[in-house]
Specification:
Blueprint: E1 4-10, H1 13-21, E2 26-34, H2 43-47, E3 54-61, H3 68-77, E4 86-87, E5 90-91, E6 97-101, H4 104-120, E7 130-133, E8 138-139, H5 147-150
Parallel strand pairs: 6-7
Antiparallel strand pairs: 1-3, 1-6, 2-3, 2-8, 4-5
Helix pairs in contact: 3-4
Length: about 160
C-alpha cells in the first residue's frame, strides 16, 4: 500500500484529529506543531503564541481509498476559514487555518479547493486560510494524541 501525507491546521488539534481519524482510507493521524521557527516546541511554547507554530494534524492516508480532494472537503467543512488566528473561543496564531502541502499536486489541489470555496458563497467573509509548503512536523506530547478518543468524546464541547 502506497500512502501519502496531508497536514492541516484548523483550530484546536484534538477535534481536527478525531474528524480525520474516522475517515475510511486514513491510515494514521498524529497531532503536532508546524509552520514555526522554534525547534522541538512544546505545547506550552506554542501556547505563548511566540513559536510561530500552528496546531496541526498530520494524516497518513491511502489515496486509493480516500482522495486528497476528499480530505480538503473535510477540512473546509469542519472549521471556519474566515476567522484569522481563531476558531471559536480559541485565539492565537497557533489556531490559524492552514494547509501544509507535501507536493506540487497537493499545492495545486489546495489552491483550487480554496478558490472553489471562495466562489461558492458558503462564507460571507473572505477566506483567510494559508497554503504553505510543509515544514518540519513536531509531534505533540503523547497526552495530546487521540485526546478525545481517550476520553470517550467525539468532538470538543465549545
Amino acid at each position: 500500500m502506497q500512502t501519502e501525507k496531508a497536514t492541516f491546521g484548523a483550530g484546536c488539534f484534538w477535534g481536527v484529529e478525531e474528524t480525520f481519524r474516522n475517515l475510511k482510507g486514513v491510515v494514521s493521524t498524529s497531532v503536532g506543531y508546524a509552520g514555526g521557527t522554534q525547534e522541538n516546541p512544546t505545547y506550552h511554547d506554542v501556547c505563548t503564541d511566540k513559536s510561530g507554530h500552528a496546531e496541526v494534524v498530520e494524516i497518513e492516508f491511502d489515496p486509493s481509498q480516500v482522495s486528497y480532494d476528499k480530505l480538503l472537503d473535510v477540512f473546509w467543512s469542519n472549521h471556519n476559514p474566515t476567522t484569522l488566528n481563531r476558531q471559536g473561543p480559541d485565539v492565537g496564531t497557533q489556531y490559524r487555518s492552514v494547509i501544509f502541502y507535501h507536493s506540487p499536486e497537493q499545492r495545486s489541489a489546495a489552491a483550487a479547493s480554496k478558490e472553489k470555496v471562495e466562489k461558492s458563497g458558503r462564507f460571507n467573509r473572505p477566506i483567510v486560510t494559508q497554503i504553505e509548503s510543509a515544514s518540519k512536523f513536531w509531534r505533540a506530547e503523547e497526552y495530546h494524541q487521540r485526546y478525545l478518543q481517550k476520553r470517550g468524546q467525539s468532538h470538543c464541547a465549545i
